[in-house]
Every structure is written in structure tokens, then in C-alpha cells.
């Protein structure tokens, strides 16, 4: 199935917005060294979901799905790591 330019543009915008949506949370946690307001369960589910999307992308051979979800996994994983790191300090 061929992807139209409009569909490719919408997909690119969606991927960029999804990836960058984690940046404000990461910056806030890093700056304040506090992740107490972050839900551990939410981010465990989020990270797991992105891992599943990557597996799905691999299964269907869709590199845009793979690449965007790897980036999202890294960003949401960073939040999760900081949650654990700063929680153990306090």
C-alpha cells in the first residue's frame, strides 16, 4: 500500500508531537530533581506500550513505526529512570 504525501505528513507530525511530548516532563523532573508527581504505573504501562509498538513495527516491516516508537520509548524510559532514581534518594 502506497503512502500519500498527506498521510506521510500527518504521520511525521504525529510522531514528532508524540516524541516531544515527554520533553517538558523530563526537563521538569531533571530541574527539580523530583519525580514524586509522576505515576510509576502510568510510565511502566507507557514504556511497555512503546516496546509493543516497536515489536509490531518490526513484524510488519514499518520503519516509521519502529523509529518513532524507539524515540518515544527512550523519552518515556528517561522519565521512568528518573522516577526510580529520585524516589530512591528521598
From TrEMBL:
| Keywords (A to Z) from UniProt | Membrane, Transmembrane, Transmembrane helix
Could you cite one Gene Ontology molecular function of this protein?
A: sugar transmembrane transporter activity
Cellular component, GO annotation: membrane
Taxonomic superkingdom: Bacteria
Pfam families referenced in this protein's UniProt entry, alphabetically: PQ-loop
Main location group: membrane
- Gene3D superfamilies annotated for this entry? 1.20.1280.290
Report the locations given in the UniProt record: Membrane
InterPro entries given in the database record: PQ-loop_rpt, SemiSWEET
Q: How does it sit in the membrane?
A: Multi-pass membrane protein
Protein name as catalogued? MtN3 and saliva related transmembrane protein
Q: Which organism is it from?
A: Caulobacter segnis
